[in-house]
Structure formats: structure tokens, C-alpha cells
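Now for a typical sample entry:
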Amino acid sequence: MYELYYWPGIQGRGEFVRLALEEGGAKYIDIALKPENRGGGVPAMNKFLEGPRVPHPPFAPPFLKVGKQLIGQTSNILLYLGGPLKLAPRDEAGKLWVHQLQLTVADLVVEAHDTHHPIAAGLYYKEQKAAAKRRAEDFREHRIPKFFNYFEKVLTRNRTPGPWLVGARITYVDLSLAQVVAGIRYAFPKASTKALRKHPRLLKLHDAVFERPRIKRYAESGRRLSFNDDDLFRQYPELDG
């Protein structure tokens, strides 16, 4: 049984792990969904983040508890889960390629976040709106196309049947990329519509992921939180051009 620790109330980086756990049919406890008086929420998470007896404390959530082991960092968690959940190739070169793509997805996530917090994460959005507007313009005009072009190229060069990035079977990075596309569509509806017209394979991957039976059941279960403006992806119309 896996235990996933993340902030309550948002999808955030924890959602990339949730999607892998759901697609892999794993048994897991989402601690963010448990009430605090029943061993859930922020106090349960802080026990590992701040506890003096934790030998290898994670820096920040998400982190995964597997028996007595704690695994932190989203890409690292997915690297670990890829084998047991059959969401990564078996060969070493394939595992590293999927991990490399996941790290590139993580770079895109940081850039999307920094459109609304370009100066400091500790400041409110309203305290950095002018800088956010400039950063968002560059993100729309240059960074979204650069990342989308790259992933479209990877999809084009995968010669096996199906809509996936690596080989003929879905991997965890397909789930993560679909999640980022969904987040950017929420945060930048106009810019993403324009960009995705030029990247049909990327849009096809997004749609294929969210039509997967287990992912669809998860999305319809009420356990998948909606995007909101306390999250990584935030919808501020003034940033969409």
C-alpha cells in the first residue's frame, strides 16, 4: 500500500503521481484527502517534513511512503513507480529516456508557474502583476511553442503505433504531459488553442490519456480536484493576451 503526501485542496505536483497510481491500478492512500483528526492533512505531512527522527526527510511534497521508505521529488517518485506499475520500459535506455522526458515536463511546469509568480513565490500575485504580464507574454509567444514543438517532434519520431511518446505502450510521462497540456489549457485558453492547432499529435495524446478507463473513472469520481487559482496553473485573463 502506497501513501501519497501532498497539500490538500490543490492538484499541484501531486497530481502527476496520482495519475500514475490511478493508471497503474495501485492501492494507495491519498493523505491529503483524509481529515486531520484521522491522521491526514498537513499535520500528517509535517510529521515527515519536520520530524527530528526522519533520517532522509523530503524537502517538500509530494512524497511517497513505501513501507519505511520515503521517496521525494515528483520525477524521482515516477522513476520509482515506473517499474512496479508497468509505466516505463524495461530496458535501461528506455527508462532513462522516459525519465529525461519527465524532467523536461518538470521544466515546463516551473515556467508555467512562474508566469504568475515571476519575482518570488512568497509574494502575492497582485504584488507582481506587472512582471507577471511580461513573463506571461514571453511564455505565450516563445516558451509554449518551444516546448510544444519539442514534444510534437518526439511524438513524430516514435514510429510505433499509438499516440504515445515512447514505444507502443503508455508510460508515466504520457500521463504527465497530458496533465500539463490540461493545465495550460486552463490557464491560457486562448494561447493554448492557438498553439495546439499546430501540434495535433500533442492534442491527440492529451485526449487519449483522459479517455483511458481508469483515468476517466478517477476524473469522474470526485477525487480529482478541479484546477483553481491557488494551484500551479492559474487562470488570470490578463495573462492570456
